[in-house]
Amino acid sequence: MDRAQGALRLPDADADTSLGPGPFGLPGCPPGTVELRGRVAAFVRERVMPAEPVLDAGGPAAHAASRRLRTEAKNAGLWALPLPVEWGGQGLPLSRYAHLAEAEGASDHGPAALGSGSLLDVLMLGRHAAEPVRERYLHRIAAGELRTCYAMTEPDTPGTDPALTATRAEAGPDGTWTLHGRKWFITGAGDADLVTVLARTGDDLSLFLVPTSAPGFRVVRELPVLGVGGQWEIELDGVTVPSDHLVGERGKALRIAGERLGLGRVLRCLRWLGQAERAFDLMCVRARSRSRSSGPLADRQLVQQLVFDALLAIRTTRPLVYEAVTRLEAGDDARVETGLAKVAAARMLQQVADAAIQVHGAAGLGPDTALPGLFRMGRAARLLDGPDELHIAAVARRVLRDHGGAT
Questions:
Q1: Is CATH 3.30.870.10 the classification given to domain 148-247?
Q2: pTM (predicted TM-score)
Q3: 255-402: which CATH number, 2.60.40.10, 3.30.1330.40, 3.40.640.10, 1.20.140.10?
Q4: Which coenzymes or cofactors are required (predicted)?
Q5: May I ask the CATH class of domain 3-126?
Q6: Which of 372, 390, 391 is nearest to 108 (CA)?
Q7: pLDDT tens digit string along 283-298?
Q8: Measuring CA to CA, which residue among 83, 96, 82, 93 is closest to residue 9?
Q9: Which of the chain's ends, N or C, has fewer CB atoms near its CB within 10 Å?
């Protein structure tokens, strides 16, 4: 794949396969990446995590905190690590960035603070957008000056069946396109500058890049997920965009979306690993520091069972995720590997966060730890980018098809 697609390469043959410090280690981490991962992890731990309450609350204070974090990341040389060099990124291949994505993902705000949150949009537009659109927007997106989001799911149609998309785009005599419809559960739509919209163009489906400042674009409402915001519903009521805002060829939306979803699912899995490690660390600290009259929680066999099971879940999920990373970077068909990784990582995060809450007791349900947010993400993970059932059925069909001639 070329640089505009992410410059993905196989891992180096002499990659360091030794385990690093801590219970998880860094198996397969390429040379030179261990130190960089440490810097990213420190930035997320020391800069991003303390700002989470402000960032979660939204509003002017959150915007100011986001700007400060972006500036600090750029000054630290950690900005836009996986984005293509031609658009202002540092061009790290997936084999290296995967290990950093875990560290970034320990906080929901890590990817945005470090400039990698726009990776999917930059790769998609870099490959498929018209040249005027690339020149107008991509440098500013990569620099964090413009915020983007992706709108596919609709209120009245199942998100797993894009063929039922009701949002429509009508071609005008002057080459423009006019869009009508609603989308929902769109991450970041409340303060986005650009949104990529899946719409019906006659009998086929196409993608359009829509400026949120265009007349007829409206944010309908915020949609709290288990009580916390960040997802949005939007309306497109006669929004008109120029012809060059068609992303890729007309009717090719599902192919482009497929490219995006494959990498996007793997990135989510990597970030969920980072969040699970964070929950695990919190659980171990609590078990060692919390005492009862009979001794510390760490001496309780049931607590030890929770710790063991959580560590087992993390350790057995990581190879599945990195197998998907390797196949994606090699340009191989990674649908089975991605499906396995996505289901395993979602279940793993929910299990580890739940165990950590159990060890914390009532404190794990309150606002003094990150555990409620980590558990909320673990539950949502089983629906994001397709529910577990979709991936289970798709993987099983492919496996059974490939074994059709077996006896």
A1: no
A2: 0.90
A3: 1.20.140.10
A4: FAD
A5: mainly alpha
A6: 372
A7: 999 999 987 767 889 9
A8: 93
A9: C
